Amino acid sequence: MEQNEHVISEEVCSLSTVRKVASMLDLVPSDFQKGDLLPRGWHFFLFAGNVRRSDIRADGFPGFGVAIPDLGLPRLVLGGRTVEFLGDICIGETLERTSYVASISEKENATGRMAFVKIQHELRNKNADLLLNEVQTFILLEASTSKPVITEGTPISQEAQAKKSLTPDALQLFQYSALGFNSHKIHLDRSYAQDVEGYPNLLVNGGLASLYVTEFLRTTCGVTLARFQAKHSAPLFCNSELTLLANPIDANTWEVKICNSNQALAVSIEAQINA
After folding, report:
1. What torsion do the CA atoms of 251, 247, 83, 44 make, to the nearest 10 degrees?
2. DSSP reduced 3-state for 47
3. Residue 247 exposed, middle or buried by CB count within 10 Å (0-12, 13-18, 19+)
4. What is the DSSP pairing of strand 242-250 with strand 225-232?
5. What are phi and psi of 242, to 5 degrees?
6. Which pLDDT belongs to residue 186?
7. What is the mean pLDDT of residues 223-240?
C-alpha cells in the first residue's frame, strides 16, 4: 500500500455501542436514543481498526486503520491529536470513514531513533458532508533496553474555573480499549507494561484522556466543542489520580490541562467552542 493511499470504510454509529460508552462513563444508557446527536468526543469507536490477529504488531497495537512501512521501531505511544467537529453525528446513522497516512518523519536524539506518524481520519454522512476531521500523531520508538526515564514533572498551579479529579482503573481501561478494538498491551497487560516497556503500571489510553476532557467540557463547563488540539507530554497511569483543570481564554477558547498524581502537567489541550 502506498503511503498516501486512502482507505475507505463504512461505519455505523450504533445505539448499542453508544449505550456501552455511556455505561463506561457511568451515565444512564437509556438516556441515549436513536436519532439523538452523538456527544462530541464519543466518536472514538468509529475509528476501530479491522486487523487480523496475525497482522497485529508485537506490542498488541492493532494498527492505525491504514498500513505504514515497517520502520524497525517496535514501541508506540500517542503524541497528540487534533479534532475538528464540522457537524454532528446522529446515533444510528451510517458514515463513510476515510483514513490515510498524512506524513511520516524520522529523527534521532540521545535516546535513539524515533518516528512521528500522522494518521488522518475523516467522517462523512450519506450526503458526503464532512462531519469530523481528526489527525492523530503517533510516536514510534526503539525497543526498550532499560527502564524508561519517567519525568515526575514540576507541580503547576491547580487554580482553575472548573476542576475535577478522577482515578482511572484497569476496568475502565479495558472497557475503553474493547470499545475501540485497541489491544495495545501497555493498556491491558500489566506484566508487559512493566517487564517489557519498563513502566510502573498500565498506561491510560491517550484517547481515554481526550474523552475525559471532552466530557468535562460538555458536562461540567457546559460548552459545545468546535475543535481541540491535545499534546501529551507525560504518561498517566492506572490507579493514579489525575486532575482536570479548565480556564476560558476568551469567548471562543478554553485551555484544559490534565495533571498527574504529582500535580504536574501530563496533557495540554486548547479547545475552540461554539459561542
Report:
1. -130
2. helix
3. middle
4. unpaired
5. -125, 155
6. 96
7. 96
How far apart are the C-alpha atoms of 14 and 7, rounded to whole Å? 21
pLDDT, tens digit, for every residue of 109-126?
887 899 999 999 999 999
Cβ contacts of 10 within 8 Å, gap of 6 or more: 94, 95, 96, 97
Task: Please report the pLDDT score of residue 4 as a whole number.
Answer: 67
Q: Can you list the alpha helix ranges (DSSP code H) found in the chain?
A: 15-24, 170-179, 185-188, 190-191, 206-215
Q: Which amino acid is at 41?
A: G
DSSP secondary structure string for all residues of 71-112:
-S--EEEEEEEEEEE-S-PBTT-EEEEEEEEEEEEEEEETTE
* CA geometry: angle 63, 51, 96, nearest 5 deg: 85
| pLDDT score for 189 | 97
Q: What is the pLDDT of residue 148?
A: 65
What share of the chain has pLDDT > 90, as a percent? 80
Q: What Å distances lie between residue 37 and 99, 108, 198, 227, CA to CA?
A: 23, 44, 41, 17
- The whole-angstrom separation of Cα 71 and Cα 107 is 12
Name the β-bridge partners of 270.
229, 255
Q: Helices (H), strands (E): how many in the chain?
A: 5, 10
What Rg, from alpha-carbon coordinates, does the chain have?
18
- pLDDT, one tens digit per residue, over 129-185 is 999 999 999 999 988 766 666 767 788 999 999 999 999 999 999 999 999 999 999
Cβ within 8 Å of residue 116, ≥6 positions away = 79, 103, 104, 105, 106, 107, 137, 138, 139, 140
Residue 2 reports pLDDT greater than 70? no
